[in-house]
Amino acid sequence: MSNEHETVDAIVVGGGSAGAVLAARLSQDPARTVLLLEAGQVYAPDAYPLPLLDADTVADSDHDWGYTSRGTAQSPPLPTPRGKVLGGSSAVNAGVALRARAADFAKWGEHGAEGWTFDDVLPTFKLLESTPTGDDVYHGRSGPLPIRQRADDELTPSLRGFIEASVAQGHKRVLDFNGAEQNGAGGYPVDVVDGVRQNTGLVYLTAEVRRRPNLTIRGEVNVDRVLFEGTLATGVLAADGTVYRGREVILCGGAYGSPAILLRSGVGPSDDLADLGIGVVADLPVGRRLQDQPGYYNAYALAPGHLEMTPAVGSLLWTSSSEAAAGELDLHVTATHLMPGEFSPTGGAIVLMAALALPESAGTVKLAGRDPQDAPLIESNYLGTERDARRMLEAVKLGRAIARDPAFAPFVVQELAPGDAVTDDEALARVIAVNPAIYGHPTSTAPMGGLGDPWAVVDSVGAVKGVSGLRVVDAAIIPEALSSTTNVTVIMLAERIYQRVYAD
To answer: For the Glucose-methanol-choline oxidoreductase N-terminal domain, which residue ranges apply (predicted)?
Structure first.
């Protein structure tokens, strides 16, 4: 192995929503040397290109891993966006800044993950946030991440109409989804200021942070695997053969990237590793419990006179299905203008995306081969249980009922998908199964848990079981799908693990 670098205290693999946070926090101690390796481009804070700054542009193909996944047994391969740039998916997503709920964190405890109750994490949510509105009990004013709750006067007329129709259909009005109440309809909280998406590469890895002599950031470094001496992680091997040595390795590659690195490193199910000729370092259920939220795009043509599409995001109805457990909010219907207007005969479009936020189905992430250039094989297994299929159908029907309400109907002239010809439940269920949508919130491919959890890959602070010197800190370690979007909770996760493990 050629081109071996000198040993640093911590190697952070992946500069996305978690990795940028950890690199910034770990390097606050001038005595700790930190190396951040990012597979994508590393832009200076003032040099991000427009597609990464414009909050109405998502999943920019120039900064994407190009993954595909299998959604359902009936669906074709689905493009599966993941950010490949400093800032990761926080630089290409829709900018939604929705926290997980107290009920979500209670489930973490059921897996034996300690220190993750809502009371535990609320101070960290407040620490990372800078927002001018909301109750001080729930909100922070001076954190690195600017978050803004969309007010009614910021929304397009059709986005406001969606909220009004939801209320007319019997749902509560929510003014702050990151406050005391989430059950109802309102504008989204977003990490967008003046139309600019505030990704973690911008707000955590500021110009001042990047000048720290103990922090090195290298872009376009695709990490192949973790290097071990026995069961001690000693560094990483890049795809180009470069060796980077570290006293600790922290994987922040996301719910697909981190398990792929673990598997190539010999950390995973022994049978799968043996099939690929990979020696087993630790036999753990890596990639065996992928959870992701299935969606469906219920799209409409905006009416002439109501063609405004900025801002694109948006409004949310967050509610319970008829089969939800007590205290669960398992359905989302989101209203956005993320569908380009050219797909509508009127030049304007709105999508009421229905999503099952708390699926019980689990999928897998596996390796296609040992080559780090090969994308992982992602089987989402959407609607893998009859209950999931029923609840997903219920979500789509809920969105269609809102669209027909007199408070919303004047803003649209035509249902584009599935179309008025699809009327009965059986036909609608078939359409959903063939055309699922990526909501983009995968979790649980290297879940945290206690000794009694058979799915656990890491402990309550991300340390990989059965080895030393290796940690995973990203959405992969979240034990179950969240009822929210994931981004802000992943940022919190990194902040809290830093506090618990590394802070003085």
So the answer is: 83-106, 254-268
